[in-house]
Amino acid sequence: MRSMSNKGRPLGAHNHFQCTRTHQIGALLLVLSTFFFTSLFRRPRSHDSTTFSPDLIRTPGETPLFTDGGDLSWPHRGYGPNLDLKIYVYDEDEVDGLKALMYGRDGRITPKDCLKGQWGTQVKIHKLLLQSRFRTRKKEEADLFFVPAYVKCVRMMGGLKDKEITETYVKVLSQLPYFRLSGGRDHIFVFPSGAGAHLFKSWETYINRSIILTPEGDRTDKKDTSAFNTWKDIIIPGNVDDSMTTNKARVVKPLPLSKRKYLANYLGRAQGKAGRLKLIELSKQFPDKLESPELKFSGPEKLGRAEYFEHLRNAKFCLAPRGESSWTLRFYESFFVECVPVILSDQIELPFQNVIDYSQISIKWPSNRIGPELLEYLESIPDEDIENMLSRGRKVRCLWVYAPDSSPCSAMEAILWELQRKVRQFHHSTETFWLHNGTFTNRDLVKFSDWKSPLPLP
User: Fold this and answer.
1) What is the number of alpha carbons within 13 Å of residue 48 lying toward its C-beta?
2) Which fold is adopted by the domain 242-401?
3) Residue 34: how many CA atoms within 13 Å on its side-chain side?
4) What whole-number distance in Å separates Cα of residue 148 and Cα of residue 162?
């Protein structure tokens, strides 16, 4: 035990520490070395292509940072420093009914048929996950499970009717023990159109806990409830034509602002929608400022893909009103012809909002104020400001491209980061039970390893 009496060295003038030049140099070196190592540890750690750089996270009052190379820094906040996922992809031959959801009842629809237009993300995400380094072939170690289906395409091409889609989905789900084990919480479904998960008429009964990938964050215009849930679902970019997303072989190149004929354009069908009809009427009042022909999808007036993008690039601003639903592919296409997108869809949800500050790369205008006031506002914006918005847009458009997750920046890479946030250490449902030794059972206390298909569903 330490003595209470003070037997240490007496304090006095003769015991003061004398600071020599050698000590001063040593102290300076210590300070410099401390600063060096502190800076070293504070630098972002270098990872593989799962990390973007520099940081896009914005604090109030700050402008987000963009790099000339188009790489973005995915935020560590809520994510961690790197991707660590294992995704099991169900094989089409593994589950009775999957082939019908992918190729129709007669198997005559091909993946190539389904790659075009907004349907394409169902095919692309499936194919990219099959190639992904995060794919696992062992169900027991998977964090998430992907259920492939091309039902939007299959339905539009007559491969399945609405009733058949619902019956086939239920048939497929009844054969998936891991779906039943988690109540569907760790299963992923892609619904790439404006209808969202409503293509599966009984989605609310069977997959209301599952992770839904969709460009559609709102469908309450035609349904009582939206199938999109911000807690579990993920907004994905629309499917821009591949001929426009490949830098080296882009079919149509952007024009300099000085050579663009129009202030703004809207290229699309009217579909009887108020906002679109207003734009078509506005173009008749101001034909020198706004190009807005009603597109034809058949006959001699139909625009080919290259012609469509040639028209789109000929304006400073690309107007993107809502159609049958709130999302619009035109928003994503505008980045590849380098016109500033002007969103005229009040309920729209945009992807990856925790990374991208959309106020820096686009404009959102109230849909009930479509008229001359809109054109006057757009005309007042200096070309310098437009160029700055286009420059920032070039840096983020890589996130609209469905490329392998090995790419330094892609839609697939961003989706995987979002999926990582959905991984849960623990899952349970109303039909799962567990015992003291970690065994999971059903209501009859049958162990999970002994469950047999088909399984009862809600």
Assistant:
1) 9
2) Rossmann fold (3.40.50)
3) 6
4) 18
